[in-house]
Amino acid sequence: MTITQQYALDLYRAARRGEPAPPAPGREDWRTVRELREYRAARPAARPSAGLRERLAGLLRRRGSAVRRGDLPDPGQEGGGRGHDVVGRPVQCG
Asked: Cys-Cys link to 19, which of 14, 27, 49, 94 (CB 3.0-4.6 A)?
């Protein structure tokens, strides 16, 4: 159904019920856009919740401490599970 058909149907319903006619399509668009812009400007900027920040900080602390403790294998070390090419063969220097 097009906008024009919907508007004609709304006009018909309003006339049958004795209600005032709805505004024509497109008539109030600029006012609506302006109100939306003002609403967004008046809202405070969205910030991540405190819980999310705490979880990210904890994750970064844990990852950083694993590197400092030496829990992660050295990428150049043989048998460390790293140093493979795309197919999965061990990388050999030549």
From this structure: 14
Which residues fall within 8 angstroms of residue 23, CB to CB, at 6 or more apart?
Answer: none
| Long-range Cβ pairs for the range 75-81 (8 Å, 24+) | none
How is residue 87 written in tokens? Answer: 């197919």
Tens digit of each residue's pLDDT, the chain (94 residues): 888 899 999 999 999 999 999 888 887 788 888 888 888 888 776 665 667 778 777 777 776 665 555 655 555 555 545 566 666 676 666 5
- Alpha helices per DSSP H over the chain: 3-17, 29-42, 50-69
Half-sphere exposure of 34 (CA within 13 A, CB side): 4
Distance between CA atoms of residues 34 and 73, nearest Å:
57
Residues 6+ apart with CB under 8 A from 19: 13
pTM: 0.33
